Amino acid sequence: MFPVKHAESALRRAAGWAGIELSPDQLDLLTRYAEWLVVEAVPAGGVGPGEAARIIDRHVADSLVFGIGFVDNPPATLIDVGSGVGLPGIPLAIAYPGTAVTLLDRSERRTLLAGRALRILSLANAVTVQGDVRDLTSTYAAATFRASLPIGDALDAARSTLDTGGTAVIGLSRSHPPAHTPPAEPGETLQLLETPEGILDSPAWHLRMTRN
User: Fold this and answer.
1) From CA 37, how far away is CA 116, in angstroms rounded?
2) CB–CB of 98/74 below 8 Å?
3) C-alpha separations of 209 from 4, 67, 88, 144, 168 in Å
4) 134: Cβ–Cβ under 8 A, 6 or more apart, which residues?
5) This model's pTM is above 0.90
6) Percent helix, strand, coil in the chain (nearest 5)?
7) H or E segment and range at residue 146
């Protein structure tokens, strides 16, 4: 399916960049999740048909890198908006066992798939919710957006979803730095974060938004 030693090395490297130290049990859960993605999520259409060969670098390790927004400060609660089959929410739930993670997606099919992954992994600190971020009434300490919304829409969603002092991490490009990012609104801080080549299979850029 994929070389185990390569998988473990890639996962540890990505986690380390994000300030996460993985235990053997966490590494095992991440590997099992990657296997589930290949065996079930790809055939079900939850991940693209050509993604099986790079499921570790492009998806699971990539998800761990979202932790750069929370280095040394794992959030108490996190909502993963447009989570699909649990990316990046499930890897982050594994990395942060003390964080209550909500996997939000509008698709019933993807939500059911993510729920199945949680059951297979016996991951008790994550739940699935089918719905639209615009309909949320709860707020969270953290939010993640991985290719789920355009950057402006993701920022708007984060503004209504985050607690005061909360942090959102928005995935941007995996090929080149963004030409521009929107200006911060009053009461918030925006920071462009770069993951250099050598951590993942290509450089990556994320935008961190903090509500002050």
Assistant:
1) 11
2) yes
3) 35, 13, 17, 10, 5
4) 157, 160
5) yes
6) 40, 25, 35
7) none
Which has the closest alpha carbon to 4: 23, 27, 22?
27
What lies within 8 Å, CB to CB, of 199 at 6+ separation is 13, 14, 17, 65
Residue by residue, pLDDT tens for the chain (212 residues) are 677 788 999 999 999 999 999 999 999 999 999 999 999 999 999 999 888 889 999 999 999 999 999 998 999 999 999 999 999 999 999 999 999 999 999 999 999 999 999 999 999 999 999 999 999 999 999 999 998 899 999 999 999 999 999 999 999 988 888 888 899 999 999 999 999 999 999 999 999 999 99
Task: Report the top-level CATH class of 4-211.
Answer: alpha beta
Runs of H (alpha helix) within the chain: 4-17, 24-36, 55, 61-65, 89-95, 108-121, 151-161
Domain spans in the chain, listed from the N-terminal domain onward: 4-211
Q: Residue 153 — φ and ψ, nearest 5°?
A: -65, -40
Label the pairing between strands 100-105 and 77-81: parallel
Indicate the Cα dihedral angle 145, 168, 141, 195, nearest 10°. Answer: 90
Beta strands in 34-110 (DSSP E): 77-81, 100-105
Collect all residues with Cβ–Cβ distance below 8 Å to 131 and sequence separation of at least 6. Answer: 104, 106
- As beta bridge partners, residue 102 has 79, 127
Q: Is 167 exposed, middle or buried (0-12, 13-18, 19+ CB in 10 A)?
A: buried
In sequence order, which residues have a C-beta less than 8 Å from that of residue 180 and are 6 or more positions away? none
